[in-house]
Amino acid sequence: MSETTDNQLLDLIQQPESRRYGFNLLVRKYQERIYWLVRRMILNHDDTDDVVQNVFLKVWENLDRFRGDSTLYTWIHRIAVNEALKWLSRTRLRQFVSFSTVERKLEESLTDDHYYTGDEIHVALQKAMLRLPAKQRLVFQMKYFDEMKYEEISKILGTSVGALKASYHHAVKKIEQFIRDY
To answer: What is d(CA 47, CA 87) in angstroms, rounded to the nearest whole number?
Structure first.
């Protein structure tokens, strides 16, 4: 069977008798992409799984509110970014520590995670990304890893394309400098 389009998924989800089936197809279609989006933000496999589960729970609860102003993936992506940022914030508050401390703990856990299979260059890239301000990190991840267009990122983050290009440029420069010094 060929991949189901977003419109087909939404049609299935709108019908009471096929709602669960349609949602199951939606999860299968987007779960891996959302996992890696969140994983690059949180780094730990188990925490990422928890956040991804929350993302799809929010999607399920709010499907009736999807207006179609963006693509379905863009909408889910926005939910995933918000859930990951909430998780990072809750972790910081729960431990009464700064974001830099949370980021340092994430960095330490990066190579301790038995699900992590990155090489030394990937570890250096992840460490460099952890040192970026949150917005630059998000823009870099969306552009570099997800290969999203600036217009799509703009819809997700509610930021102008010009500001996104500047954020990406600054992120790349900081990452290059970190890797040179690494």
So the answer is: 9
The reply to whether 113 falls in a domain is no
Task: Tell me what pLDDT residue 97 has.
Answer: 45
What whole-number distance in Å separates Cα of residue 98 and Cα of residue 130?
13
- pLDDT (0 to 100) of residue 25: 97
Residues 28-43: tens digit of each pLDDT = 999 999 999 999 888 7
CB contact at 8 A, 109 and 44: yes
Q: Which CATH number characterizes residue 156's domain? A: 1.10.10.10
- List helix spans (H) across 4-133: 6-14, 19-42, 45-62, 72-95, 99-112, 120-130
Q: What would the DSSP string read from start to end of 48-66? A: HHHHHHHHHHHHHHHGGG-
- Count of the separate structural domains present in the chain: 1
CA dihedral 7, 56, 92, 45 (to 10 degrees): -110
